[in-house]
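Re-run with default settings, no changes from the original entry. Doing this only to confirm the output is reproducible before filing.
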Amino acid sequence: MTSNQTTQSPPAGLRLRKGFALEVVLLMLVMFSIIVLAGLSAVTTIARTSNADYRGARASYAAEGGADDIMSQLDAAMQDGIINGEDIASITKPEITGFRMTQSTSTTGVPVSRTITAGPFAGLYSLNQPIDITVSARDTSGNKATAVLSVNAQTIPLFQFGVFYEDDLEILPGAPMTFAGWVHTNGNLFLSSASATFQSNLTTPDSVFWNRKDANNRLAGVRINNAAGTGVLLDFDSRSLSEPAFKTRSEVRFNGRLMSKAQGVRPLKLPLPANVPAVTLVQPRSVGDSPMVQDVKMAWKSDWYITVNAAVFDIVDTNTMKAQLCTNFMVQERTGGLQVPDAAACAKIFKPRRNAFYEGREDLRPDLLDIHMDSLRIWSDASKAARSPRIIYVNFTNLGGNTNKDYVAVRLRQGAQLPKPGISADTGGLSMVTERPMYVLGDYNTIVWRPAAIMGDAITFLSNPPNPAMAQTPGSLATRCSAQAGWCDTLQTNYAKRTARPTNVRAALLVGHSPTPCDYVRAGCGAPPYGGGLENLPRFLEGWGGVTFTYTGSLVSLYQSRFAFGLWGNSTNPNSPGAPGGGYYDAPTRAWSFDVNFRFPERLPPGTPSVGTVLQTAFRPLY
């Protein structure tokens, strides 16, 4: 059969175009490629941005690290207590691998004296030198960053502190003790007492230990005044609490007036060139002293330099010894054309005394250069513009060889009133310095206050004698050297303790100390001998029990005693006639306080050393 079917065509609008599927696939491939390329571009951009950020961050860190390096160099320059133009010029640019470093360090304005308002030493005054540090770092790809630091170099006079120690400081008084004044040590601080009250701040860049250093023994009588002036018991330390907890506990109990490394306290640099020991401050002049050493030695600062040939103590006859001291055994040098006393006046001021008395702590008899401060004052005040001293340094030569000059020391006596200043408008003042041990007999600087300091190897206070003349021979005891109380050379012949008389001293002290050699908790330390602590920095030789020793000044110890090294509590001669069972002295009632006059720069003792620190005050990055 023949089919008559016919094929119908779709409407024109619905006709399929050949190759349409291929076009769609190609279009989709193009779109997909665009998306992939866009993604790759974004990834590349992000990678490039991240890499730039990374390189920029590295440059920024390098600049900040360089600024820290400059800070370290400035900190080292503060070894001598100050920052000067020579220190700034000696700053070297930091070296960091992969970066080209540049630096610019300069002082801003002139040093200004003002009260410190922030930080651990707020409340003290300092000489402040603002310094700007700019450090830039550029890598090999050209990425650059700059850090700008503003710092403050603070120079703080040492005698602003009630107590300042370079080494560990132990305060463990047996007799009641109240101390008014800032206490600072660059070492650890050990506190323990049945009755000790601190009325001001205590600071250390290290740790605070509520315990003895020589033994595991703590007494629960240490009080620290809070901001309201109320004494609050110490009940924690750096061993019992973590640093954050220590900081919090100090704030709660003392309003933050006990500060350690937990509060970011920094050590205060001593006024010394690098690698020069602290004892250099009180050592005599030497022809080999560099200009920097001369700047810090009290011997070079002195306007009256005295050299005593210790061979004078070998003269057998006492009267001949005294007569020949000034003419044959003493050389005096004064600066600025100032006068020295003639032979007659000199003989009244300076008198040698061989084996003067028995010294219980050292177990020997010292050979003394007695300086009669009343005679010095009378001579100086007669023509004060031409004679008034500010710093007197006493040096000894030809020491040792026999018991006539085996323990040479200086003794200041009759010093209740010091010389007037050379200029009436000046507050004046007098600093007495030697590298040897020092003794002070009776009241000192109590009638008319002057800025005063005593510096030496060690300091021992002898109470007011029964009579200012004090007997030189035992034949006049009834009228001049009472057997009842007060210091007397001729009656101090053994361990027997004479009863002390109340004595008052107003002077800053810079002397050596006897340390406890190690902390008992350290392996191998064992049971070390107690060095005596702060309470025995001023030494005593009499029966002071129940008698008050009043001290107003500043107690500074930067080094260990080199000549007066007898142990605290020495009992090396227990069979000596009259040796007491309780040792060579009884502790006084200590009425000690900081001299508030030292808060004013113009009232500091002549030659007051300074300490310094560098503090960051601002930071800003530049890109």
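Residues 471-479, 573-580 have pLDDT under 50 and may be disordered. The longest strand covers residues 125-139.
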